[in-house]
Design a protein that fits this description.
Elements (H helix, E strand, L loop, with lengths): L17 E4 L12 H11 L9 E5 H7 L3 E3 L3 H8 E9 L5 E7 L4 E3 L12 E3 L5 H15 L1 H4 L5 E10 L2 E12 L5 E2 L15 E2 L1 H10 L10 E5 L29 H8 L18 H13 L8 E5 L2 E7 H17 L2 E11 L10 E10 L2
Helix pairs in contact: 1-4, 8-9
Length: 371
């Protein structure tokens, strides 16, 4: 990483942080000079932007200025186009589905961040196509506008959005794009108060900034911009790598699939090859067992085995080897439905009296709720 702004050391903790709401921003439309609108709103509110400030802008107004609205009837096509990979999908009671995907803009989000709130009637809004590029463009324009006051310096810019989190209820804002900010504070190798060297601590500074700013801004209040002060140690002269390093990918991504999708991927199913399970877990055991049979039969399939379902009782018949493979596939698919089964072997007979490879087998699976 390049050196941060020389006001403090990168690891220094500020004694005080201030988040200032910026009121007075007009409705933003495609082609608007968003940085100019922000600069004027700050000036009208008595906020003199400095080079150590961080300007946090909601991604929605960035997307509006960049003309990222599409007709609402094109939402599903847009979602397909904006998705890199499926993480999880669940069906809703009204027949629609909700998807968590990795968006082309980087993060993993519900519906690739496509938003239908606070937009023109009959439209939905996509995320900025290049959030880091958007942040850099905003910062460059602010630099030009503030040249007389700052002599070439510029505040950092964070483009924020809202998302849920694994293991935690409630949503928070995070940094979708960034320019001029050290987005991570890597404390590994530093001693703690006891003198022990820290080995895993890497603070997500940009996400913390976005969450702080969200406490004083909000779409319901019509204030999509805030200014955070006190982080001069993390503001840098150049734009830096942006928010892209905050996205965890590859082997470090422990949540590449939802638990149902992980089972389906292991069974060889392609994305969306079978219907999504309901968003609310549970339901009649027979329905869930039937869905598990459909999953087991897809992907690499049941080979030569056949499965018949009668509520919570599954009968598997066919060549012995294929029956064994089918039972294991069924047990995995049942697990994803929060079910388990007792396996009760039936009669096994040799077709030709000698070759056990061609033997026929019959097995019952007595399905029940998973303990």
């Amino acid at each position: 990483m390049s050196a941060p702004h020389p006001s403090q050391g990168a690891s220094a903790r500020p004694a005080e942080l201030v988040a200032l709401s910026v009121p007075g921003l007009p409705e933003v439309t495609a082609g608007d000079d968003l940085a100019g609108l922000v600069a004027r709103a700050c000036a009208a509110s008595g906020i003199a932007l400095g080079r150590d400030d961080v300007v946090v802008v909601a991604s929605k107004v960035v997307a509006k200025a960049e003309g990222r609205a599409v007709p609402a009837e094109d939402r599903e096509r847009a979602l397909d186009a904006e998705s890199v990979r499926l993480v999880a999908e669940r069906s809703l009671p009204d027949g629609r589905t909700t998807r968590v995907v990795q968006a082309r803009s980087g993060p993993v989000m519900a519906a690739a961040g496509i938003d239908a709130s606070d937009v023109a009637e009959g439209t939905v809004l996509l995320l900025p196509a290049d959030p880091d590029g958007s942040a850099r463009a905003l910062r460059a324009r602010l630099r030009a506008l503030l040249e007389p006051q700052l002599g070439g310096g510029a505040p950092a810019v964070v483009v924020s959005d809202t998302s849920g989190r694994p293991w935690r209820d409630g949503v928070t804002d995070f940094a979708l794009g960034a320019a001029g900010l050290e987005v991570l504070d890597d404390a590994r190798g530093r001693p703690d108060r006891s003198g022990r060297v820290m080995e895993v601590t890497v603070r997500g500074v940009a996400d913390e900034v976005a969450s702080l700013a969200d406490l004083v801004k909000g779409k319901a209040a019509g204030t999509p911009v805030a200014v955070v002060r006190g982080l001069g140690a993390h503001v840098r002269d150049d734009d830096g790598p942006g928010a892209a390093p905050l996205v965890r990918t590859g082997p470090a991504d422990w949540f590449a699939h939802g638990h149902v999708e992980a089972v389906r991927a292991a069974l060889g199913l392609a994305e969306r090859e079978v219907a999504a399970p309901p968003i609310a877990p549970g339901g009649p055991v027979g329905e869930r067992a039937a869905r598990a049979v459909g999953v087991a039969a897809a992907g690499r399939g049941l080979r030569g085995a056949a499965v018949s379902a009668d509520g919570a009782l599954l009968a598997v018949t066919g060549p012995a080897y294929d029956v064994g493979a089918a039972v294991e596939r069924l047990l995995a698919a049942l697990w994803a439905e929060r079910l388990e089964a007792d396996v009760v072997p039936g009669a096994v007979r040799s077709v030709d009296g000698a070759d056990v490879v061609d033997a026929s087998a019959a097995v019952e699976l007595r399905v029940r709720e998973r303990a």
